Fold this sequence. Notes:
Largest sheet: 5 strands, mixed
Radius of gyration: 14 Å
Shape: globular
Oligomer: single chain
Order of helices and strands: HEEEEHEEEEHH
Number of helices: 4
Structural class: alpha+beta
CATH topology: Trna Endonuclease, Chain: A, domain 1
Number of domains: 1
Amino acid sequence: MAAPKYAKGARNERELMELFSQKGYALIRAAGSGVGYACPDFLAFKHGRQYGFECKAWDSSSIAIRKDKFAELKRWEELTGITTMIAWKLSRKGWRFFYLSELNEADKNFTMTETKAEIIDRKIYELA
């Protein structure tokens, strides 16, 4: 049986993929995402637009990405040329999207607060 945290994450990834599918994107989910592979959770392609999404669905006022994971995502983005973003599902507010450069560096990780997320306020229709 899948761990509850993994199951929740996978369910939310599938939900977001379905939203992009409805917008006409071709999608690829990364096998084993979140277990040490240096790539985003899924890729989305449409008419020359290319995105890699690292998905977070935390019920918290902030999210954090370990520095080593951030470095892997940044390197992946540089190697592939595919725009890599963080997709965060905010409770009762839906998905918001952030470029890696928009996260704040802290001692052990890179972070995004809900306040900053609401200021940036990038939604799916701005990408689709």
